[in-house]
């Protein structure tokens, strides 16, 4: 592994950590947006439920109006029929049915009045909710716009970083890149670590055997830590890697 290869691995880790940080910044916008929008969202949910219930009640009231109209028509016919009954038995039957229709009509009319009252109150509540939503949206609008703009900017920066990474890895050694990617696919953030002056892995602090230390410092082979599996590079890259991890 040449000095340039080592530098490339360190730089790639720097790029990847910057990408991870950018992804985290983007994720952090979601709870902030939710927090700012929450009051308006609660009002909108309440308004949506109220509209749905109002629609149901309006349908119930229209159906009840049809029922009232039918019963009134039936009452009218029974009133007319009661004047032409031929005997006491028919009169009793008509009277009983007429009384039943009147009671049912009265119940329907009372229920219709109750529904109309509910409709009026619900329409008033909906008007209040719509006004509150408008006020809430106006109040949080600037902050929402600021957060959305910030998220858009962060997403564009991330896109640029990912493009830079793609361009960068095109010039890297394919075998070293595969190894690096394989380590990171295991869920690790760190894929490259420096050998400390006293011969330890700066990631897990395990002591590296002297023969491997010599290979890392003077050879060209790509050496991984036996303890944690990261790619080990020379001590001179320690400051660069420390800067990467602190970024």
Describe the model.
With 247 residues, the chain is mostly helical. The chain has two domains: 15-168, Orthogonal Bundle (Helix Hairpins), CATH 1.10.287.1490; 174-246, no CATH class. The protein is built from five helices and two strands. The chain has a two-stranded parallel ribbon. Strand 1, helix 4 (210-218) and strand 2 form a beta-alpha-beta unit. Helix 1 (3-82) packs antiparallel against helix 2 and helix 1 (3-82) packs parallel to helix 5. The longest helix is centred in the middle third of the chain and has 82 residues, at 88-169. It is rod-shaped. The model has no long low-confidence stretch (mean pLDDT 90).
Gross morphology is rod-shaped
Level-1 CATH class name of the largest domain = Mainly Alpha
Total helices: the number is 5
Q: Give the N-to-C terminal Cα separation.
A: 26 Å
Q: Architecture of the largest domain in CATH?
A: Orthogonal Bundle
Pfam family, one: Zn_ribbon_9
Organism: marine metagenome
Protein name: C4-type zinc ribbon domain-containing protein
Keywords: Coiled coil
In short:
This protein has 247 residues and is mainly α.
List strands and helices in order, with pairings:
Blueprint: H1 3-82, H2 88-169, H3 174-185, E1 192-194, H4 210-218, E2 231-233, H5 238-246
Parallel strand pairs: 1-2
Key structural traits:
single chain; 247 residues; mainly alpha; Helix Hairpins; two-stranded parallel ribbon; 5 helices
């Amino acid at each position: 592994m040449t000095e340039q290869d080592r530098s490339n691995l360190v730089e790639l880790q720097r790029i990847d950590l910057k990408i991870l940080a950018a992804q985290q910044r983007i994720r952090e916008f979601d709870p902030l947006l939710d927090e700012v929008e929450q009051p308006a969202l609660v009002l909108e949910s309440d308004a949506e439920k109220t509209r749905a219930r109002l629609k149901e009640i309006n349908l119930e009231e229209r159906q009840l109006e049809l029922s009232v109209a039918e019963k009134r028509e039936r009452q009218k016919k029974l009133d007319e029929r009661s004047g032409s009954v031929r005997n006491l038995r028919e009169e009793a039957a008509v009277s009983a049915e007429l009384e039943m229709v009147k009671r049912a009509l009265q119940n329907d009319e009372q229920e219709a009045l109750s529904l109309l009252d509910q409709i009026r109150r619900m329409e008033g509540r909906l008007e209040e909710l719509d006004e509150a939503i408008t006020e809430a949206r106006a109040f949080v609008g600037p902050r929402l716009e600021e957060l959305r703009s910030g998220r858009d900017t962060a997403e564009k920066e991330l896109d640029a970083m990912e493009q830079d990474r793609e361009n960068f890895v095109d010039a890297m050694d394919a075998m070293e890149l595969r190894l690096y990617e394989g380590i990171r696919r295991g869920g690790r953030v760190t894929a490259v670590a420096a050998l400390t002056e006293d011969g330890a892995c700066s990631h897990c602090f395990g002591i590296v055997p002297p023969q491997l230390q010599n290979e890392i410092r003077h050879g060209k082979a790509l050496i991984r830590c036996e303890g944690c599996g990261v790619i080990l590079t020379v001590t001179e890259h320690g400051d660069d890697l420390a800067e990467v991890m602190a970024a």
